[in-house]
Amino acid sequence: MHGEMGYMARAPEDRPFISRWFPAARSVVVCAFSYHDGTPPPPPDPSRGRLARYALPPDYHDELKKRLKALLAFYKEAVPGAKGKVFVDTSPVLERRYARYAGVGWVGKNAMLLSRDIGSFFLIAGMAVDAELAFDEPVPEHCGTCRRCLDACPTDAFPAPRVLDASRCVAYFTVELRGAPVPEPFRRGHGDWLFGCDACQDVCPWNKFSVRSRVFEPDLPPSLDLGELAALTPERFAERFKGTPLQRTGWQAVTRNALLAMGNSRDPRHRAALERFAAHPDPVLSEQARWSLGLIDSRQ
Ligand code: B12
Ligand code: SF4
Ligand code: SF4
Is the overall model pTM greater than 0.85, yes or no? Predict the structure, then answer.
């Protein structure tokens, strides 16, 4: 269920309990930060690959850590001697679980934390503190009989509602799986996703209530030209995507994703780039290019 994300298997018994990470914890404050830029998803275009919305602003970790640290400093000033610790994504804290307890929203059938007020295009960050604070109640769930997200998932990554099998998820393959090929049975499901995947959120009716972010501005466009991307050397890639979420995933995996999206587009205009990569010394890239050429040719 975790794919190659080994850290998820480490100390699994600690992950549900914030007090194992911060023993003094008595209360948890959870914040939601919209990253929606107010624009609709881009129209399909065989020459381009799509980026998930969260990847458009600069990498969010530093910005949210800064804001949570300021909140913690404010708290410590108000309560001299108080202790606290902030979490933004990378700590062993199950953020959706605590956000649910804190009343930020409910866990949708797509496993996303979902709010009636702002939909699900938001990031979670928070802090644990050593005092007992007044608390909000969890909100009831509002999915009802809807199952649009389950039906929209292109790789059948939900064995049951609210249970995500990460080892089938396009977001996992495109962002976290590096140095390895995308397993063949999931390639067609990637469609034109280049980095991350929003298919199970784009269809959610609650996302018509998404609010424009007051924290993040897009730095990247919602889709990138596949030919231009595949033409970048590792050095040019590093320059172009410095400070963006694509930087951490790196040239090899993002180029692999671009070659895969080229195949799924079935657009013969990508043939020259794919033929160049079919002879590339990197076996992951050359194999992906050959697979994509096969898909384009199978249509002729
Ligand atoms: C690893 C990870 C991934 C893995 C998935 C791992 C997984 N199986 O969930 C991959 C790489 C695939 C991934 C994808 C995405 N991720 Co991610 N991811 C994480 C990370 C770092 C850890 C999550 C984790 O441990 N999951 C393990 C499962 C077991 O825990 P969980 O999903 O939190 O589920 C709990 C709740 O569902 C709860 N629960 C509550 N009620 C109920 C009811 C029932 C019936 C059930 C079964 C469960 C349940 O129980 C579960 C266990 O406690 C978190 C940050 C963090 N530290 O939490 C971000 C995080 C979950 N990701 C986030 C985002 C934005 C995404 C993507 C949307 C990115 C994208 N567009 O490509 C996709 C969404 C995919 C999806 N539909 O969930 C946000 C989610 C924000 C939100 N509004 O929910 C987080 C919180 C990061 C952040 N700081 O904002 N992610
Ligand atoms: S992010 Fe994409 S692949 Fe992953 S569960 Fe949602 S729709 Fe499926
Ligand atoms: S698409 Fe429907 S089932 Fe899925 S999270 Fe949204 S409301 Fe719930």
Answer: yes
